[in-house]
Fold this protein.
Amino acid sequence: MTATAISSIATGILIVCIELVRRRNKRNRRIRWSRTNFGRDSVVSTRDVADVERKIRRIQKEGADGLFLVVDFDHTVTDFSGKQCHDLIESSTIMSSVRGYREDWQELWRICKEEQEAGTYVLQQWWERAHAILVQHHFRRSYVARMLDAEGPIRLRSGMRDLFEFCRARSIPIAIVSAGITNFIDTILRREDMLHDNVAILANEMIWSKEEETDARLVCFSSPAVHPGSKGQIRELRGAFFEKHAGRRNVVVLGDSIHDASAARNVLGQTDARTLSVGFLKPANDDGTFGWRKLPKDTFVDAFDVLIEGDRSAAGVVELIRGLAR
Ligand SMILES: [Mg+2]
């Protein structure tokens, strides 16, 4: 055998060895589903570990380039200690002195209760009626910052800043899909320096009388309203974001309400096989149920792929996204 042939064989063996090592390292880099990813003291439930692992493997194949996040805002980006957008506006002392304001909210809740009892309650109508109260009572642009200053604090969930920063660094788009109000979310994220180019807010935007006025009057809201029940149709409601990122086929959904899990469905115009949903479960009500709809915990375990109990940090989610984006 000639020296050239021996050299060729040795080179071939070396290439095979390098490829085997590369594949082994790649396998080792893959994260496996583990509750301890979310911190040793976290209580984490998942209805189907094998299914979660399948989704993780599928998403990892395309990494950061194929991924985007759909993230609820109130009590997901923020923790459970603060008020949600509409609650903050309703209880605001800035508006409370306006004649008829409090009475209109009381009337809204009375109608809401009546319709719930009659079985005729429609979520979208609550949003439309609430927004009409704000228009009717001349809500002004300057109230946004003033209300956040006066009625806060609205605290970010621990670890969320790291999550946003990681996604910015890896150019992973984040769609904040919220039944809250765009202008409040925008202000909070700007103050926290988290509103990067990769972040889009798909929520209810206040439309002002004249954009150039510093204290313009609220004229209307963007339409149709984004409410908890319509999050599953967010692709149709706010299509521009999804068209822009049509090449991305994998999504991680973060939320706290049972409706947030439905945001995952249809968001890619396909089955939820490429979506991984992570829920933050509020502490239980006094009667052991969860949320204002007083649902059993099992309902949340069934709705989310991964459910983190208690007002926990998002640090485990950061690790999850890091693993998926490799
Ligand atoms: Mg929420």
Observations:
- The beta strands are 44-45, 67-71, 174-181, 199-204, 206-208, 218-221, 250-255, 275-281, 306-309.
- The chain has two domains: 33-81+156-324, 85-148.
- Residues 3-29 form the longest helix (27 residues).
- Residues 85-148 form one domain.
